Amino acid sequence: MAKFLIRYAKFAGTSLIGSVVDTLVLWLMSDLVFTRGYWGEYIISPMISFQCAVAVNYTISYFYVWKDRTRKRPDASVRRFFRLYAAYNLSNSMVFLFRLGVLLLIERFSGWDVVFCNLTAMCFSGIINFTINNLLIFKKKKSL
Fold first, then answer.
1. What is the pLDDT along the chain (144 residues), one digit of tens a residue?
2. What are the residue ranges spanned by the domains of the chain?
3. 9 burial class (0-12, 13-18, 19+ CB within 10 angstroms)?
């Protein structure tokens, strides 16, 4: 149980870093690049910022949070790194769609800025991401 809580704390710290990246890129995209239009601000900007955060979070997760399940394995390789990244990105993309829906609902009912809507939606999606990562993406290798 202690190992689980430590891993969750590491995940939470990694998520904070990813949230900073996500929020910074979202702010830059929505305020400097896509300055006009709902689609650019509320759809395209969050998608770009999300992919930047995924790359940062995966790298930290692979080399730090779940290093005992990735780096110390005999089958650790560059190919496996990118294969896991593809699975990680796919699972995070599915959760992102959920998060985007929550973001849009929050915006619809509150009228808040996209950055605040996104931060609120991230709180809901974080638990789902940890569960998927722990049980599927970085699952324990079965002992023989």
1. 888 889 989 998 998 999 899 889 999 988 888 777 788 888 888 889 989 999 999 999 999 998 888 876 666 688 888 999 999 999 988 988 888 899 899 989 998 988 888 888 888 888 888 889 989 898 877 655
2. 2-137
3. exposed
CB 133 within 8 A of CB 15: no
What residues have CB less than 8 Å from 32, skipping those under 6 apart?
A: none
Q: Are 69 and 140 in contact (CB under 8 A)?
A: yes
Measured in degrees and rounded to the nearest 5, phi and psi for residue 143 equal -85, 145
Token digits of residue 42: 């509320």
* pLDDT value of position 6: 92
> Would you state the structure tokens that stand for residue 128, as one six-digit string?
């789902």
Cβ(70)–Cβ(89) under 8 Å?
Answer: no
Three-class SS of residue 143? coil
The two structure tokens encoding residue 103: 């973001």
pTM, full prediction:
0.78
Q: How far apart are CA 22 and CA 44, in angstroms?
A: 13
Q: Please state, in angstroms and rounded to a whole number, the distance separating the CA atoms of residues 127 and 68.
A: 21
